[in-house]
Amino acid sequence: MTDAPAETTGTNPFSQVPIEITISVGKARPLVRDMLRLQRDSVLPLDRRVDDPVELYVGDKLIARGELTEVEGDPNGQLAVRLTEVADLQNGL
């Protein structure tokens, strides 16, 4: 990562406020009757493939796209996202 501009670091009181980022891997549109049949080990197909990009949102605002990856060296196989595209929040994505 590169160093953040001075105006977004220590001098800005908002720079230490945590935000929640939601990672969207896909959507499903089952019928209600199919939802009522779901049980443990059921499979719910999504509208995306395993290697398709995921989308990162803050609230309902798309901020980036990326690919799922495992955290290197993590014995538990923790997931992470490698960014492939970052939104230009000033001018749109």
Automatic annotation (TrEMBL):
This is Flagellar motor switch protein FliN. It comes from the Bacteria. Keywords: Cell membrane, Chemotaxis, Flagellar rotation, Membrane. It comes from Thioclava dalianensis. SUPFAM superfamilies: Surface presentation of antigens (SPOA). InterPro entries: FliN-like_C (IPR001543), FliN/MopA/SpaO (IPR051469), FliN_T3SS_HrcQb (IPR001172), SpoA-like_sf (IPR036429). GO terms for biological process: bacterial-type flagellum-dependent cell motility; chemotaxis. Belongs to the FliN/MopA/SpaO family. It holds the Pfam family FliMN_C. It is found in: Cell membrane. Residues 15-87 form the Flagellar motor switch protein FliN-like C-terminal domain.
